[in-house]
């Protein structure tokens, strides 16, 4: 499952580049699902705490979302009215959620990921004028997605149904998936990308670098998946445990790996898993694969 290689730009039509961005978004979701061992999440070892999910379901879900990401990219290429584009993305995002639920038999495999990757795909497409995917800086891409996320979604002006995420945000007075995007994905910018790149630089394998990036996200994220299932005590356990793994040298060090497995046991006991952090890791891999400021030499 290798990263769809970026074609020589002169051969790309706008249609091709929208498809290529969508392929990269799907690739990022697949890489996140396959990455192992992720504490208490679905991975190649098993289901973690998710009795209703398994690896093949995550991969099927990623595949069914690809055409929606392509439509989001195409919408961004063809619209010069930001308000119209935001409305269109909301529509496509909800269609993508419906397709996901139809594919998985009603299981929420990727709701948060559709939101983050949808916005990032659209922002990347805005940088692909005339069909050329311009290699941009990650800050620019994250800020572009944030600008879109801050625009009003007309479908939500009059009614917004309560979600697990919004209920957790209110109950614990924290910000959730919506604010994470509106603020320019601070956990991607400040924790995940720097950790991914510093791990690579010190010679960690790509798998270890990605696991360390996931843990870096966990150290600061107010993950509403964890809050909904295990409350503030569960979130503290996650954040402290992730900090501990990184302080012990990360997942590539023996002490760090032991701490990671210990964290997993704690999360399993709490029935908690960091789905929001997993979504942001997929978004991180997508941004990293597109941006000129990466330093990766990927082993696939
Ligand atoms: C914004 C969304 C994610 C709503 O999120 P909300 O916080 O209300 O909670 P909900 O329980 O529906 O989903 C939250 C999901 O986000 C992820 N998540 C949890 N915590 C966080 C966090 N702090 N940061 C980022 N992601 C998180 C998890 O995967 C979780 O399952 C989304 O459902 C939405 O509004 N979709 C509409 C479609 C749309 O506008 N799309 C446009 C761009 S594609
Ligand atoms: N590898 C993964 N394993 C599990 N969840 C993941 C993974 N990658 C991303 N996620 C995210 O985690 C979320 C699922 O978490 P969770 O099961 O707590 O949510 P829910 O369906 O809203 O709640 P519940 O299962 O309690 O009804 C999905 O929206 C998905 O985006």
UniProtKB/TrEMBL annotation:
<protein>
    <recommendedName>
        <fullName>Probable 2-(5''-triphosphoribosyl)-3'-dephosphocoenzyme-A synthase</fullName>
        <ecNumber>2.4.2.52</ecNumber>
    </recommendedName>
</protein>
<comment type="function">
    <text>Involved in the formation of 2-(5''-phosphoribosyl)-3'-dephosphocoenzyme-A, the prosthetic group of the acyl-carrier protein of the malonate decarboxylase.</text>
</comment>
<comment type="similarity">
    <text>Belongs to the CitG/MdcB family.</text>
</comment>
<dbReference type="Pfam" id="PF01874">
    <property type="entry name" value="CitG"/>
</dbReference>
<keyword id="KW-0547">Nucleotide-binding</keyword>
<keyword id="KW-0808">Transferase</keyword>
<keyword id="KW-0067">ATP-binding</keyword>
<dbReference type="InterPro" id="IPR002736">
    <property type="entry name" value="CitG"/>
</dbReference>
<dbReference type="InterPro" id="IPR017555">
    <property type="entry name" value="TriPribosyl-deP-CoA_syn"/>
</dbReference>
């Amino acid at each position: 499952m290798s990263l769809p290689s970026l074609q020589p730009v002169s051969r790309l039509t706008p249609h091709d580049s929208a498809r290529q961005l969508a392929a990269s978004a799907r690739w990022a979701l697949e890489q996140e699902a396959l990455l192992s061992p992720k504490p208490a999440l679905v991975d190649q070892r098993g289901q973690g705490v998710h009795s209703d999910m398994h690896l093949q379901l995550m991969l099927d879900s990623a595949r069914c979302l690809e055409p929606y990401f392509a439509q989001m990219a195409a919408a961004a290429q063809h619209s010069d009215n930001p308000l119209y584009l935001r409305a269109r993305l909301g529509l496509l995002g909800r269609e993508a959620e419906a397709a996901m639920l139809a594919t998985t038999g009603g299981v929420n495999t990727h709701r948060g990921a559709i939101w983050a990757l949808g916005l990032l795909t659209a922002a990347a497409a805005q940088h692909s004028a005339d069909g050329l995917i311009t290699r941009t800086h990650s800050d620019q891409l994250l800020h572009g997605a944030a600008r879109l996320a801050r625009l009003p979604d007309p479908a939500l002006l009059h009614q917004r149904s309560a979600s697990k995420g919004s209920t957790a945000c209110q109950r614990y007075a924290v910000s959730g998936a919506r604010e994470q995007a509106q603020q320019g994905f601070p956990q991607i910018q400040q924790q995940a990308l720097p950790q991914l790149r510093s791990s690579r630089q010190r010679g960690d394998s790509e798998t270890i670098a990605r696991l360390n990036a996931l843990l870096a996200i966990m150290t600061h994220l107010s993950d509403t998946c964890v809050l909904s299932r295990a409350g503030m005590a569960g979130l503290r356990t996650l954040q402290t445990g992730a900090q501990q793994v990184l302080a012990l040298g990360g997942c590539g060090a023996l002490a760090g790996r032991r701490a990671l497995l210990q964290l997993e046991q704690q999360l399993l006991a709490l029935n908690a898993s960091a789905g929001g952090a997993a979504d942001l890791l997929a978004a991180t891999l997508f941004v990293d694969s597109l941006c000129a400021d990466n330093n990766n030499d990927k082993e696939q």
